[in-house]
Amino acid sequence: MAKRTVTRTHVASIRNYQQVRDGLDSLGFAASKLWNVARWTIGRIWDETGTIPGEGALKSYLKSHERYADLNAQSSQAVLEELSEAFTSWYGHRQNGNQNANPPGYRKHGDDHPRSTVTFKEDGFTHDATNGRLRLSKGRNLKAHWSDFLLCEYETRPDVEIENVQLVRAVYERGEWCLHIVCRHEIETESPGNRTAGIDLGICNFATVSYGNEATLYPGGALKEDSYYFTKERAKCDDSSSREARRLDRKQTERRSHFLHALSKHIVSECVERGVGTIVIGDLGGIRDDENGDARNWGDHGNLDLHGWAFDRFTSMLEYKGEGAGIEVVREPERATSQTCSACEMKDGNQRVGRGLYVCDSCGTVANADVNGAENIRRKVLPNLATDGGDRDNGWMAQPAVRLFDRSEGRFAPREQVADREP
Description:
By secondary structure, the protein is of the alpha+beta class.
């Protein structure tokens, strides 16, 4: 057994909701107002200079603004950090050829401000574990005599222990406030074994897993279908900020999140069954750039698909699910893994024949191209083939298993089982 430190987010309901609801509303409205002030400021600087101010400059510029003091200083900083990240994401869309992407908008519907998420960092909350309470700080402008803070009594599942709280978020969901409590836990884990698996991430096949003697493909068709459907439905909305548009965005996000959670859970479960103690996953940090650091052009459809795929989020899910199962997840660069033969290590960019087929002119290996890439990623931590059992039969690389996302069950299953179900 080994001890590991992991970070988990627990959702808690508020027992004294009636007493703190108005206070949480005022904080949520304040966060929206600060967002709008920052958005207007960025727009003005953008129009005058043609540049978007960075996170640090934005904080420095707005630190003395009246709306900044509506929230705890760290809570105000979190709002500006979120807006800056949203602009960075939008700029990434534009760099990857999506000229239809819109910059972050204002949080305002007519004359009403929505209730935005409020983040409380280390200086913004006090945790009373004995009585199950969280004391949340207000900003200077919202303090009034005895109500200088909100005292929330929370409740979680019986099996959840709230300890070592790192961060608290007040989130308005489905017409009610709840708390997302980020905790640091120490858990005891035991590695399932000493085998290694490699994962190649892609667009057609979202994930391809190589175990060294077998492989599994996980197509991303469900994500593509959702993307096409919600894009078409959203185009019917007269206003991109309308209630229906926001409902569609929320629904698509929920379905994407479920897909990623189900996939990461399934892969970890399969690895545990096979005695895998290490997962090596391709790090796609530079996939959007070419050798010179410029934005790589993957074509109109490829650029849109690439930006919409949540590779980093999936990897993060895989990491924390792997931690709980005693599996170490290692990120390794993917460069050249699709061009190199995993059998003889010959590198040739022209060996990918047709769609999804890899044929090595040097040794004659025929393989599924994504499986070949996943095996190359797996071998990045296995430089000595003798440590991998020495069996180099690679016939399995041409016939991987396929697992599809079954919407009716919300899980992954063999292709033949999913295909037999009613649509």
